[in-house]
User: Fold this.
Amino acid sequence: MEPADLGHDGGVTTTAEFTIEPFVDGAPGPHVQAAIAVAEEAGLEVEVGPFGTSVTGETPAVVSTVDAVLRAAVENGATRVSLQLTVDPTSG
Assistant:
């Protein structure tokens, strides 16, 4: 997907924040670990926090990876995934 397909010029950063359940603070299960691995393999910056995980990168990379992250979480036992995307057109 090209940046123009997303309604932005190139260089725009997007952050996808996930809360993947079941949730155990300090002990991410295989459903969380699989989602993180997919994002890392895509070259996204991953930050694991106490209530969720965020991945950041250029908008096309984040948008094209979200589907794989969600699938990895569900295929490995997630019972719920909450997702929020934040597009920052000032970051480019």
Q: What stands out?
A: The domain at 12-88 is CATH 3.30.70.930 (Alpha-Beta Plaits). DSSP finds two helices and four strands in the chain.
